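re: ur question from the group chat, yeah i did fold both. here u go
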Amino acid sequence: MTLQDIGFDHWFAAQTAELGSDGCGFARISAVDRGSYIIHDARREVPAELSGKLAYRIERPADLPCVGDWVTAQWYNNDTAAIIHQVFPRKSFLRRKTPGEAIEHQMIAANVDTAFLVQSCHFDFNPRRLERYVVMATDGNVEPVVLLTKTDLVTEEALETTLAIVRSVTTAQVMALCTITGSGFAALQQTLLPGKTYCLLGSSGVGKTTLVNRLVGQEAFATQAVSGTGEGIHTTTRRQLVVLQSGALLIDTPGMRELGLIGDGEEVDMGFEDIAALAERCRYADCRHAHEPGCAVRAAVELGELPKDRFESFVKLKKESAFYGMSQLEKRQKDKAFGRFVKSVKKRRKN
């Protein structure tokens, strides 16, 4: 196995001259758990820690290495452990707002080619949550693919209705799967290409770990029995990258309850392609689709061409993204002002 086999393509190779250093090699973060890291250099996986210099330079949690990141590392103790010295720029990423009141990004995974957005046909299906996942993927330059699981728990008519709803939410590819019968898995496996990185995103209990075990071909991760409603019990506790027999790389993630967005609102536009296309016909280029005359988006809602609940979801996500984005900007400005204050105090003390 080589670095190329675990995703080190030409984009990363072009940066090695700048990031390389004597005594160090390149590796990929394959697991993160409460500040502990495991790195993979195509030969082995070993535990790793941040160098003091790297830890000192990190200004915010999103700058810490996450699963999928490429790093420069130095091995020691007979190559059984390593120190991470530098992190490569990210080609793509999956991130969300940190859960709770904190206004920061939380990295989910980096350098992902395709995000599998997993929802159960039975208890979990939620088009509004799916919209958030689509926005998260497109914001990070990641291709979204929707996976509908537990198709055995619904009728064919109900499944067709669910598929129609998904297609009204996103133009992304959608696949229906059943872990009991194996239906849909052959088609899924054909999409998994060697050296490409895929990530599973979804709420707890929708069947992500079962999907991983079936794709790996063994019980790589523990699962628990489902409840009486068909809802699975959450088992994944950390983000982890595994290499499949096909050569594809798969990242499993713990279930996410909160999917807050941070930005200037443009990432929402990318996740709502139908509304973005309508907006191009608005009279004003900066139309907010509120009360402006000549708004093609509101006109589509009134004519029934655009579902009202989808438009309301779009407006809600735009406001949420803009609010947290502005809050984060203000926070950074305050942090910078405080940093300048500390430097000025140190300077006066020296004088």
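okk and heres the other one u asked abt
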Amino acid sequence: MQPMVTDQTRRKLLRAALFSAVVPVLPYGCALTRRTVARPALVGCAVTESNRYQAVVADSQGNALHTLPLPARGHGVAIHPAASQAVAFGRRPGMFMLVFDYMSGAPVKVVTAMSQRHFYGHGVYSLDGDYLYVTEGDRKTSQGIIGVYDVRHDYQKVAEFSGFGLGPHEVIIKPDGTLAIGVGGVHTYGRTALNADTMRPSLTYMSSQGKILEQVTLGDHHLSIRHLAHDGADTVLCGQQYRGTPDDYPALITMHRPGEEMITLKAEPESWARFNHYVASIAATDKWILATSPPGNCYGIWSKETLELVELAALPDASGVVVQNGVFQISSGAAKVVHERYPAPAETSVVNVQWDNHWSAI
């Protein structure tokens, strides 16, 4: 059994996030004037050279404008659809989420996990911004929970949705307000999987009131569904982590439309091997799908029409990806940002942030 989160731990987390200095970062030492002020465009988590953890607000090129210290390693970030608020979530098994103002860089509130709960690193706001849906788990059993937090009332927890399986990871919201949940199916102690032989992952669709609308599964139960994206319409993209035989390299990305079967993206086994059994961030345009793999130090691009892999590129610690103005922007833990305009050549720039895990676009 994992130890309970004590009140003393909660107080330490609160002090670490709310009373540490919030530092505005000026790229390349430039003076901040009305002419040079850049607007926030990207938010993510980062690691400093001294192995400390941050939430970072950046400009459209991926250079930091504000940094906020985190009490532990962060993972995903949710962006409010109307207000200038965002939430950074602790990496699984996380104990905190930090609410902050991305325009000023000021912390707003730290919410700590309940004593028998932990966070899985992701959450999403309702379309109207009134509620925050967060992937959580029971610390003893890994039973999956969607925690519902009332944004209008200081992020108080008002409900829990369950009954869909073990180990949910990412939750996203579709344009119609339906929640899509990547259910990993894994019972973990800390970060150690305990049920590799019996895991039951799924892609679960849920109403905003907690009703399970549909669940779909993959043929190989060792493919843990982790990360999600949608194309702005009906298609949900799923990135998997393979927990089966180490020498096997199955396909790691699928597409799904409600009421239909899963569709698997295509690549040769040696190409899937480059991903080292793990897909992190996913994004899509009307023609292309891009997915990253930090342990594989690479990213791939697929055609939505043919489902074929069209490009596989090396990038150290390839992490987050978003689409801005039709261009993929990919972050890296090596302080690089790739601007991918496939089929045109990609452009790489050096930035002032060692990006970690995921990106969210404002």
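fwiw on the second one: The chain has one domain: 7-292. The longest strand covers residues 156-166. idk if thats what u expected
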